[in-house]
Amino acid sequence: MPRHSSLTAFLSGLFVLAALSLAATTATAQQREINCMACHEDVHFDSTAHAELACKDCHTNVTRPRHKKEDLADLAGDAICAQCHTVASRIVGRSVHAEKVGCMDCHGGAHVMLKNDDLLSPMSPVGQVRVCGDCHHSIPGQEQMIDSFVNSVHGRGLLRSGLLASPTCSTCHGGHRVFPVEDERSPTSFKNSPQMCGDCHAYILDEWLNVSAHGTAWKEGNTETATCIDCHSSHEIGDPVVGVERLHMVDECGDCHGTFFNTYRGGFHGKATNLGLQTSATCSDCHTPHSTLGRDDPRSTIHPDNLQAMCGECHGQVTMAFASFNPHIDPSDPSDNFYVYLIAMAMHALIIGVFGFFGIHAILWLQRGIVGLKRGEFVGHHSASGQYVRRFKKRDINMHLLIIVTFLLLAATGLPLKFSYAPWAHTLMGWWGGLENTMLLHRLAAIGTFGYFVMHLGILVQRFFIKREKGLFWGPNSMTPQLKDGKDIVAMFKYFLYMGPRPAGDRWTYWEKFDYLAVFWGMLIIGGSGLMLWFPNFFTQILPLPGWALNAAYVVHSEEALLATGFIFLFHFFHTHLRPESFPLDPVIFTGSQPLERFKDERPLEYQRMIDEGTLEQHLVPPPTKEQERKIHFWGFIAVAIGLALAVGIFAALLVY
Questions:
Q1: What angle do CA 344, 348, 349 make, to 5 degrees?
Q2: What is the SS3 assignment for 593?
Q3: Is omega for the bond preceding 584 within 30 degrees of 0, making it cis?
Q4: Which residues pair with 595 in a beta bridge?
Q5: 620 - beta bridge partners?
Q6: Is 166 in contact with 157 (CB distance < 8 Å)?
Q7: What is the spatial distance between Cα 207 and Cα 290, in angstroms, rounded to a whole number?
Q8: Is the Cβ–Cβ distance between 557 and 529 less than 8 Å?
Q9: How many whole angstroms separate alpha carbon 445 and alpha carbon 428?
Q10: Starting at the edge strand that comes first in sequence, how are the strands of the sheet with 388-390 ordered?
Q11: Which residues pair with 390 in a beta bridge?
Q12: Is pLDDT at 242 greater than 50 in this prediction?
């Protein structure tokens, strides 16, 4: 019995000694880091995130000093992190990154992992942009996402200005808890995005929630209303109050408010912003950006009681009538304003009537002229006898040159605004140095136009009241339409259709009288409407006119401009220079004279009257010199080319764009 007890005690002591020896060996392996470095000398541990940890804290599968890789428990991937970061591991497992992105894909290698607030860390505000971009640039549809962020107002604040308070990827999308954008749990979802933005933009969120119609609708659960990212987008967000980004905000509003967008683009403000005028009013200038309300709300900037103050922010002190101008009027809708609708329809009818009549007139004349040219029916521009007849005085020539310059300048500066959506309009704006310069040139040309018109009226007054000139308003030398003109129109169409001879011309033909009287009509219509738009306060206060009169003036000015430019560049150019009898240029208005043979052929009645009165010799002048002809053709071709180019632009804008 004693011998048995002694053996038992001996064996027990031996077991305890073996266990203690094993424990001591294991402890030594886990506690003495020098043993790890002795073998793993290629490993450099530079982590600031885990500086206080030892190898054993992560490599818990190492239980012996000497071990083989294949004998160790698997701690690959995120398992080694999950030993401590259990909550984060579970969150990532439920996120959009589950089984796609590992801890070290974002945070960097374990031995070099830096603290998130370290500026060099992959998870620093700047580092996130690169780390997230490494994956997302290869995902279809997201190739430009990071580039857009880099160039956004947030990206510029972070990457260019070094503002760590600027949002980065995790600020909006979360850190480990990243869900698809449309997921209700995502900070970027419709449900949560206002609060997400409001974490930084607290005052704006408060205003939007408590004042704006959009914010009120959002609180009521209306999923059709606009939230922050609907107006400001997400990754490519720009500064909405400066530069081009300010102008682009109009398009954001137009995504929802399509009808108002179209009427805005049809008005001056919309066309001006479309051409890059950054000082022109956009949606938010009138409606305010984060406290948008309907016009019936007394707090709204567009409430009738607040219109003068709102318009006055740009236009200074304005009249109530001026403020009642409707920037969203649709002239084709009688319910908007019936008077403006009637005026618009009248202008359309006028354009269709004039273009229709003279279009048919020109086509028939063209084919008849080609036939006549082949038959040798016409007399050329050069006199076989060397004799020329004076048709215009030097005063008339100079006035016509002024008309050419001012009209071309008016057209080249006005048409781009009318057709602001056409690419060529933007090109012309660039040539003029921007819309503000263009507007200045347009008004200078308008002053020149009023100048020659007043000068011509003065000449008429002088001829009639002082010189007592007879036949100024009636007779063969008068520009007043008469019975003969009506007969000539009928005879001319018969001539076009090979049913009779060409009517005998006199001092002025019916189409020349139309050209002349169109200037008077134009000065009344386009000049008067232009002055109303130039000085709206004067016309709504002194006269006074209602606000809708400014809308009507805008319609009239725009449509009459189309009528005038289209008629001059197509029909006047054809009647004067491009018809087969005169092609390619009739220099008479520049030289003031034409060959006697051509004068006799085209205006036999005036020629015969000169013979009968014995005044022909008084009108004979020397032929123009070769130098004069070269200059006339050079500048004449340039003027015609500019007009035809603008005509092509008009057709392209109407038919293509």
A1: 115
A2: strand
A3: yes
A4: 388
A5: 389
A6: yes
A7: 6
A8: yes
A9: 16
A10: 593-595, 388-390, 620-621
A11: 593
A12: yes
Q: For residue 649, count other CB atoms closer than 10 A to its CB.
A: 24
Q: Which long-range contacts (CB under 8 A, 24 or more apart) does 525-531 make?
A: 525/556, 525/560, 526/556, 526/557, 526/560, 526/561, 526/564, 527/446, 527/449, 527/450, 527/453, 528/553, 529/553, 529/554, 529/556, 529/557, 529/560, 530/446, 530/557
Instruction: Report residue 445 as tokens.
Output: 């040309």
Residue 599 near residue 389, CB atoms below 8 Å: yes
Both tokens of residue 493? 């169409």
Kindly compute the dihedral angle of the four CA atoms of residues 369, 371, 377, 381, in this order, to the nearest 10 degrees.
50
Answer whether 402's CB lies under 8 Å from 448's CB.
yes
pTM assigned to the model: 0.82
Angle at which helices 435-461 and 394-418 cross, to 10°: 150
**CA distances (Å), 430 to each of 273, 438, 568, in order?**
14, 9, 25
CB atoms within 10 A of CB 587: 18
Average pLDDT over residues 366-382: 87
If you search the block for the tokens 């053996």, which residue do you land on? 7
According to DSSP, the residues that pair with 614 across neighbouring strands are: none
Cβ-contact 523, 449 below 8 angstroms: yes
Percent of the chain having pLDDT more than 90? Answer: 73
What's the CA gap between 649 and 424, in Å, rounded?
7
Is the pLDDT at 29 greater than 50? The verdict is: no
Catalogue the E-assigned strands of 517-612.
593-595
Topology of the domain covering 338-655: Fumarate Reductase Cytochrome B subunit (1.20.950)
- Quick check: 300 and 293 in contact, CB under 8 A? yes
- Of 71-80, 309-318, 427-436, 566-575, minimum mean pLDDT range: 71-80
Residue ranges of domains in the chain: 44-65+77-178, 338-655
Integer-rounded Cα Rg, in Å, for the chain is: 42
Mean pLDDT of 480-504: 96
Query: What three-state secondary structure class fits 580?
Result: coil
| Cβ atoms of 433 and 442 closer than 8 Å | no
Q: Give, for 389, the enclosing helix (H) or strand (E).
A: strand 388-390
CA nearest neighbour of 351 among 533, 570, 513: 570
The mean pLDDT value of the chain amounts to 90
